[in-house]
Specification:
The protein is an alpha/beta fold. It contains ten helices and 17 strands. Helix 3 packs parallel to helix 4. It is globular. The protein binds nicotinamide-adenine-dinucleotide. The site of nicotinamide-adenine-dinucleotide has 24 residues, from helix 1.
Length: 387
C-alpha cells in the first residue's frame, strides 16, 4: 500500500456517515494499493464537523469548502451536501485538479449536470456519482444475469420507490433537516431524490430510456418553511408516476411517493423478458428472485409442477462483491454498498480507468429526470435525449 488517497469530505449528514465508514473500511476489505486517508472534514456547521472529526478520525476540519481547492494534502473531494451545492463544488474541485465523487442526483437540472461533466472531462480527473444501489450484490447479479442473455428479449421493466415520511401536514419544509422538501435546494421532490436511483438501475440493467410520459402530484400545497417561519407553497413533486420507452423496445412503469403509509424505503424492480425475469426488493436486499424459462424448455422434459421463481440468497463467494466478506450464508448490509462503490472507484483508478457510474452516467439519469418533470408539466410524451 504505497500510495495515499487523501480525502476531503464535505457534508456531515446521512451520506457523510456512510462515506466516512467506507473510507475507514476500504483497506480492510479491498486489496488496493491506495490507502484511504481521512484528511479533511468540512461542513458549514462547525459543531457537526467537530463531531465527525472525533468520530471518524479526520485529521483536520474546515467550514468553508473553497479552502479545500488549493489544499496540497487533498487528492479527492467527496460531495455529500444538498443538491443545490453539487455543481459549484464539483466544477471548482475539478478545475483545481482534484478527483471528485458526488452524491446523487448529480445536479439540480441537466444544464448544471452538463457543466459538471464538462469540468471533470476537461480536467481529466477521475469522477464518480454515488448510485450505490448498483453495488447491492443482488442488483449486480441481476445485471450479470442480463449480460449472460438469460432474460432474452425484454418486454417490461417495473420500478417502485416508496416512502411515507411527509404525509403529515405538520412536517415543515426547508432548513437543515427537510431541505428535500424545498425545490430551491433539492431541485425536485421524489423524482430527483428517489426515482434517480430507480432510473439509474433501470438503465444499467435494461439500457437507455428514450421517451417518457409523467404525472406528478403535490398533495400538501403549503407547509411552514423552517427558514422564514411562514407557510409557503410547496413546489416539489410529492409523488411521481411515469411511463417509459426503452431503446430496446421494452416498456417501463416507474412510481415514487413519500405518501405510501407504512413504506419506509421500499425500492423494488422487476424485469420481464422472453426467457426469464428478475425481481429485487431492497427490504430483502440479500435476495434476487429469478425465473428462468429457457432452461425449462431446453431440458429433456419440462417438469411444470416444479417450475417457479428461484429466490437466490446472494451470499456465495461467486456472487458479486461477496468474496470480500464473510462465509456463504452470511449477509452484508446497506453500508457495504458504499464500500463496494469506493472499492470499484479505487480499483478503476489503479487500472487507469474511470469507475462507473461516472458523471456522464449521472447526466443520462438527470436527462430522464428533467424530461419526466417537463412531461408532467406539459402532459406530453417527451424524448429524453438519452441515446
Ligand atoms: N446515495 C443515496 O442513497 C443517498 C441517500 C441520501 C442522500 N443522498 C444524497 O446525498 C446528499 C446529502 O444528503 P444527506 O441526506 O446526507 O443530507 P443531510 O441533510 O443529512 O446532510 C447534509 C450536510 O451538508 C451540510 N451542508 C449544507 N450545505 C453545505 C455547504 N455549502 N458546505 C458544507 N456543508 C454543507 C449540512 O450542514 C449537513 O451537515 C444529497 O445530494 C442527497 O440527495 C444520497
Amino acid at each position: 500500500m504505497a500510495k495515499e488517497l487523501r480525502v476531503a469530505l464535505i457534508g456531515c449528514g446521512f451520506m457523510g456517515r456512510t462515506h466516512s465508514n467506507a473510507y475507514r473500511r476500504l483497506n480492510n476489505f479491498f486489496p488496493v494499493e491506495h490507502r484511504a486517508v481521512l484528511k479533511v472534514i468540512c461542513d458549514v456547521n462547525a459543531a457537526k464537523a467537530r463531531t465527525y472529526q472525533d468520530t471518524w478520525g479526520y485529521e483536520r476540519l474546515e467550514t468553508d469548502w473553497t479552502r479545500l481547492l488549493n489544499a496540497d494534502d487533498v487528492d479527492l473531494i467527496d460531495i455529500c451536501v444538498p443538491n443545490r451545492y453539487h455543481r459549484e463544488i464539483a466544477v471548482a474541485a475539478a478545475r483545481a485538479g482534484k478527483m471528485v465523487c458526488c452524491e446523487k442526483p448529480l445536479a439540480m437540472n441537466v444544464a448544471e449536470a452538463e457543466e459538471m461533466v464538462k469540468a471533470v472531462e476537461e480536467a481529466g480527473v477521475p469522477n464518480m456519482i454515488w448510485f450505490n444501489y448498483r453495488r447491492v450484490p443482488a442488483i449486480s447479479l441481476a445485471r450479470q444475469i442480463v449480460e449472460e442473455g438469460r432474460i432474452g428479449r425484454p418486454f417490461h421493466y417495473r420500478a417502485l420507490y416508496l416512502q411515507d415520511y411527509t404525509i403529515s401536514e405538520d412536517v415543515p419544509q426547508g432548513g437543515d433537516a427537510l431541505w428535500r422538501l424545498d425545490a430551491k435546494v433539492a431541485g425536485s421532490g421524489v423524482t430527483g431524490d428517489l426515482l434517480a436511483h430507480s432510473i439509474d438501475t433501470a438503465m444499467w440493467l435494461n439500457g437507455p430510456i428514450t421517451r417518457v410520459a409523467a404525472r406528478t402530484e403535490t398533495f400538501i400545497k403549503e407547509r411552514r418553511h423552517v427558514e422564514t417561519g411562514r407557510r409557503e407553497p410547496v413546489t416539489i413533486d410529492d409523488a411521481c408516476m411515469f411511463l417509459a420507452e426503452f431503446a430496446n423496445g421494452s416498456l417501463g412503469t416507474f412510481e415514487s411517493t413519500r405518501y405510501a403509509r407504512g413504506r419506509k424505503n421500499y425500492n423494488t424492480f422487476e424485469l420481464n423478458g422472453a426467457d426469464g425475469s428478475v425481481f429485487f426488493d431492497l427490504e430483502e436486499p440479500e435476495y434476487l428472485q429469478f425465473f428462468e424459462y429457457k432452461q425449462l424448455q431446453s431440458g429433456k422434459k419440462t417438469e411444470s409442477h416444479l417450475t417457479g421463481w428461484r429466490k437466490i440468497h446472494t451470499t456465495n463467494s461467486e456472487h458479486p462483491y461477496m468474496n470480500r466478506y464473510w462465509v456463504p450464508g452470511t449477509t452484508i448490509g446497506y453500508e457495504h454498498t458504499f464500500l463496494n462503490a469506493l472499492g470499484d472507484f479505487v480499483m478503476a483508478l489503479e487500472a487507469g480507468a474511470c469507475a462507473q457510474p461516472d458523471f456522464r452516467a449521472g447526466l443520462q439519469t438527470q436527462k430522464v429526470c428533467d424530461a419526466v418533470l417537463e412531461s408532467a408539466r406539459s402532459g406530453l410524451w417527451l424524448e429524453t435525449g438519452v441515446a
